[in-house]
Design goal:
Elements (H helix, E strand, L loop, with lengths): L1 H30 L3 H23 L4 H4 L4 H28 L2 H8 L2 H11 L7 H19 L10 H25 L4 H17 L14 H25 L5 H7 L2 H12 L7 H18 L2 H7 L13
Length: 314
């Protein structure tokens, strides 16, 4: 039952995350929303709502208990700044300079970074499955970003850079959360992480300084979806799934996210992919599915030691 719950949470969260990225691109294109304002606003609102759910529905004492221990307080600040904020900002920046499909697919290089990290830390060994995974990822990225033409990239360079950074940030986000979740509820950890990230970015772009007046009722409905479903519920469900699955499995079983992002980008935003970009998309999704189905390997190599301390960014 716990595994089924984990599967439901990570897949549902991934769907919302993927569609949320496409809706965000719509806000950038049609309404001129500033990426800094959107990241700040969505983090603060979603963080407040998650902590409110914890306060009224669960053990409210945990909300402030996490700050009473110096070590966990430092870990939470690190998770909020390097994990939550960095994942949010790099992903949104990649969408702004490219599109949601490419940004999401590049972000899903995170399993590769996790595998590399676990091997370096000697918590996993290099297997044929890992070699297959790396090969699919490299081939997929080549086709996705070049459309088989080495003369020029089919995706803006900035979109690629931000997308790869987003994959690194997601790997850190997934691994670093484990020791915190052993002590506190996921609502507390994710809620405070969003508040920390949103507060930090407020110094760059205060949430009350919106840069556009071209917001229609349709735009507000898009904002509602991005903040509630694409942020609050997506991050909550994803981090909650780590309590029922290993970090490696959670990062892999969300393979429906790039599929959701690609389909909504192509059929809703009408941004077609070239033939070889579709081949690249299939390689990356195949890589994620291949590892996701390798449950035996995931369960043995992906769980961190119970007293594992802070993990560094790769």
């Amino acid at each position: 039952m716990n595994r089924r719950k984990g599967l439901f949470l990570v897949i549902t969260g991934a769907i919302f995350w993927g569609i949320g990225g496409t809706v965000t691109k719509k806000l950038f294109q049609q309404y001129g929303i500033d990426v800094n304002w959107l990241v700040t606003t969505r983090l603060l609102i979603a963080g407040i709502l998650l902590l409110a759910v914890q306060f009224f529905g669960k053990d409210r004492s945990q909300i402030f208990a996490v700050w009473k221990n110096r070590r966990t307080a430092i870990q939470l600040i690190m998770f909020g700044l390097i994990g939550m904020l960095t994942v949010q900002y790099t992903y949104m920046a990649s969408i702004k300079h490219g599109n949601a499909a490419v940004a999401t697919l590049l972000q899903y290089l995170a399993p590769i970074f996790i595998i590399i990290y676990l091997i370096i830390r000697k918590q996993a060994v290099l297997t044929r499955q890992d070699l297959l995974t790396v090969s699919l990822a490299l081939v997929g990225c080549f086709f996705l970003l070049t459309n088989a033409s080495i003369s020029q990239l089919s995706v803006p360079t900035l979109a690629i850079v931000w997308g790869i950074l987003s994959g690194l940030a997601l790997a850190f986000y997934t691994l670093y959360a484990v020791p915190l979740l052993k002590q506190y509820d996921s609502l507390v950890i994710v809620g405070w992480a969003m508040m920390i990230g949103g507060f930090a970015l407020s110094f760059i772009h205060p949430p009350w300084q919106i840069t556009t007046t071209n917001l229609t009722p349709e735009a507000y409905s898009y904002l509602f979806f991005v903040i509630i479903f694409g942020t609050m519920i997506a991050f909550w469900f994803y981090i909650e799934s780590i309590q029922n699955l290993s970090p490696k499995e959670s990062s892999l079983l969300g393979s429906i996210e790039p599929l959701a992002a690609v389909l909504t980008t192509v059929f809703w935003l009408k941004e077609p992919l070239g033939f070889f970009q579709w081949v690249g998309t299939a390689c990356i999704i195949g890589m994620i599915l291949s590892l996701a189905m390798n449950k035996k390997s995931s369960s043995k190599t992906s769980k961190l030691p119970k007293n594992e301390g802070p993990l560094k960014v790769i």
